[in-house]
TrEMBL record:
<dbReference type="InterPro" id="IPR022735">
    <property type="entry name" value="bMERB_dom"/>
</dbReference>
<feature type="domain" description="BMERB">
    <location>
        <begin position="45"/>
        <end position="160"/>
    </location>
</feature>
<feature type="compositionally biased region" description="Polar residues">
    <location>
        <begin position="1"/>
        <end position="11"/>
    </location>
</feature>
<dbReference type="Pfam" id="PF12130">
    <property type="entry name" value="bMERB_dom"/>
</dbReference>
<protein>
    <submittedName>
        <fullName>MICLK protein</fullName>
    </submittedName>
</protein>
<dbReference type="InterPro" id="IPR050540">
    <property type="entry name" value="F-actin_Monoox_Mical"/>
</dbReference>
<feature type="compositionally biased region" description="Basic residues">
    <location>
        <begin position="22"/>
        <end position="31"/>
    </location>
</feature>
<feature type="region of interest" description="Disordered">
    <location>
        <begin position="1"/>
        <end position="31"/>
    </location>
</feature>
Length: 160
């Protein structure tokens, strides 16, 4: 009996010790998973902030570009009047005014190309942001157990 009691006590102790280690392992795995999720969310947030800063910089550049285009437009109207003889050209000769006109046209075309590039970059940022939101939404949908999802949830997950 005594040996049997010691045996049963020791085996129950082993069981007791193994169960907490399993829960400890499970807790550790859960903590690890939460830590990874938190790090992932932080990285996503950092990427969003980078895109936001880049978008703000592009917006500022577009505003500056618009101001430069307006200034060129005003100068171009003045120069065009001088070329037509509607305004006093002062000491400028026609060749000099034509040269300025072509320089103005080239500068305006350059600014228009630059504006197009900025708009493409802005659109690219919008697409990256949209993709990031979709990826996050998909991660959230995939984290839910399939047995808990209904037809609509599965269809939405497939669509994403």
């Amino acid at each position: 009996r005594r040996q049997a009691t010691e045996y049963s006590t020791s085996s129950s102790d082993e069981e007791f010790e193994s169960k907490p280690s399993l829960t400890h392992k499970a807790k550790r795995a859960i903590r690890k998973r939460r830590k990874l999720e938190k790090e992932t969310k932080q990285l996503i947030k950092q990427e969003e902030l980078k895109r936001l800063h880049k978008a703000q910089a592009i917006q500022r550049q577009l505003e500056e570009l618009e101001e430069r285009q307006r200034a060129l437009e005003i100068f171009g109207v003045k120069l065009e009047r001088e070329l037509r003889g509607e305004a006093d050209s002062g000491t400028k000769d026609e060749n000099q005014m034509l040269h300025e006109w072509f320089e103005l046209v080239m500068e305006k075309n350059k600014l228009m190309r630059y504006e197009s590039e900025l708009l493409i970059i802005a659109q690219e940022l919008e697409l990256e942001d949209h993709q990031s939101r979709l990826e996050q939404k998909l991660r959230e949908k995939m984290a839910i157990d399939d047995s808990l999802k209904d037809e609509m949830d599965l269809n939405e997950e497939d669509e994403i």
